[in-house]
Amino acid sequence: MAKNEENKDVLENPEVIAEKVTGIEQWIEHNPKIVFGVLGALILVVGGYFGWRYYIDSQDDQAQREMFQAVRYFEADSLNLALEGDGNNLGFKQIVEDYGMTPAGNLANFYAGAICLKQGKYPLAIVYLNDFKADDQLVQARAYSLIGDAYMEQKKYEDAATYYEKAANYKPNKFFTPTYLMKAGLAFEKSNQKDKAIKAYQRVIDEYWESSDYQNARKYKARLETNS
C-alpha cells in the first residue's frame, strides 16, 4: 500500500517528478562513459542493421541479374549450363557460392538441387535442397518432395517417407498434397511400414476425395489390407 502511495506521489506531484529527473541528470553527469558507451552501442547496432540490409538488397539485385540466363538454360533443359554457367554467365552453383545469403541465392539452391536430382547426383541434390528455405505455399513443399525423390532413388525409403510426409504436411492443399501422400504411402510400403502406408492412403480418401489420386489410394489401401 505504501509503495502505491509513493508511485501516486511521483505521478501527481511536480516537485517529486523534478527531484527524480534531477537525480537522473546527476547520475548521467557522473557516469558519462557508461551513457556514451550505451548510446554508441545502440548506434552501431541500428546502423549495422540498416547497413547490412542495404548490402543484402544490393547483392540480391545483382544475383537476380546474374541468375537470369541460368533460369533460361534451366527452362530450355540445358541443365549443365544452368548449373555450371557458360563462361560468360554464372550458373546456379556459383550463384549459391557468391550470393548464398540473398533471396536469389536461396532460390538458386532449389534450382541446383532440382538439376542434381535430374542428373543422378542424389546426395548433392539433398544438400542443395536442404539449404533452400521458403515460407510460400508451394515451393517449400516441392523441395521436401524432391528430397524424398532423391532418397527413394538411393533406396533409403524411410528417409524418403519422412520428407514426403513433410511435403504433405506443409501448408496442405488439394493440388499437390494428395500426390505427396501417395508418394509417402509407397515409401512406407517399401520400408515395410504397412500401417503408415495405409494411413497415408486413408488421408487421400478422407481429405482429397476429389483428387485424381483418390481411386488409386482406395486400390492401394485395399491391397494392403487384403494382404495383411
Secondary-structure blueprint:
Blueprint: H1 2-12, H2 14-30, H3 32-75, H4 79-84, H5 92-99, H6 103-118, H7 122-131, H8 139-153, H9 157-169, H10 177-190, H11 194-207, H12 214-227
Helix pairs in contact: 1-2, 3-5, 3-6, 5-6, 6-7, 6-8, 7-8, 8-9, 9-10, 10-11, 11-12
Please give a quick description of this structure.
The protein is mainly alpha-helical. It has helices at residues 2-12, 14-30, 32-75, 79-84, 92-99, 103-118, 122-131, 139-153, 157-169, 177-190, 194-207, 214-227.
How would you characterize the overall build of this protein?
There is one protein chain. The protein has 228 residues and is mainly alpha-helical. It has a domain at 135-228: Serine Threonine Protein Phosphatase 5, Tetratricopeptide repeat (Alpha Horseshoe), CATH 1.25.40.10. It is built from 12 helices and no strands. Helix 3 (32-75) runs parallel beside helix 6 (103-118) and helix 6 packs parallel to helix 8. 32% of the residues are buried. The model is unreliable at 48-56 (pLDDT under 50).
Q: Which structural traits does this protein have?
A:
228 residues; mainly alpha; Serine Threonine Protein Phosphatase 5, Tetratricopeptide repeat; 0% strand
According to CATH, the fold-level topology of one domain is Serine Threonine Protein Phosphatase 5, Tetratricopeptide repeat
How many angstroms separate the termini? 73 Å
The CATH level-2 architecture of one domain is identified as Alpha Horseshoe
Percent range of helical residues: over 70%
**What ranges have pLDDT less than 50 throughout 5 or more consecutive residues?**
48-56
Number of helices: 12
Spatial shape: extended
